[in-house]
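Why does residue order matter? Because the sequence determines the fold. Keep that principle in mind as you read this record.
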Amino acid sequence: MDIDKLKGLLAEVQSGQVGVEQALERLRGLPYDDIGHARLDLHRSLRQGLPEVVFCQNKTVEQVLAILNKLWQHHERVLATRVPPEMAAAIQSSLPEARYQPASRLLTLTRAELPPPTADAPYVMVVTGGTSDLPVAEEAAQTAEFLGSRVERAYDVGVAGMHRLLDQRERLFNADVVISVAGMEGALTSVVGGLVSCPVIGVPTSVGYGAHFGGLAPLLAMLNSCATGVAVVNIDNGFGAGVYAHLILRRIHRSPS
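Structure:
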């Protein structure tokens, strides 16, 4: 249950439209609902302002559908990550309102759209070393957008052609957070960290040749960056980077001017 739904329920109790026992029944699922193969944290939105997100990798279609249906009963907006195309098709046949983004492998359910960010709102800029990093970058960008953040993109601006990155310097300098997504040796994140004054979130990807070790090489490069203000999430964790960036922007938005 999210904050708006809880406020609505309390208002209905106050006005007499809903009885106390009926309200208790609707709240009985808090703080979590045990559906056998999962214990759904229905209280998370009240604690953190963000609802539980469904990580679909290694789950069956039946498990994911059961989780989504339960979350959809309690939330106006639901997000699922790492959804393969065949699973998305099965979900959409059961939940036609579900929307799927193949590039990011994100699936969303929304009853109400968030108001779009204003043109002067704080923003996160997502940059990639190459086009091969796009799936992870889009997972980060679309996650932040789903949560209500303003996102700018600049893809394929890696260090093999530094002028491409420098062409984006005005937008980089004005960004409030930068998500730097890179495979191979992961040098892009250090370069970005040395250019901007805002926090930089490094996302190493599993894109690269053998000695890249499935993303370990860029992960270690980013962790050992000599640039200041760089934090690093796990390999291919675009979702985590998108959430982290959103939390930073949300705090900026709440800060007094």
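The longest strand covers residues 123-128.
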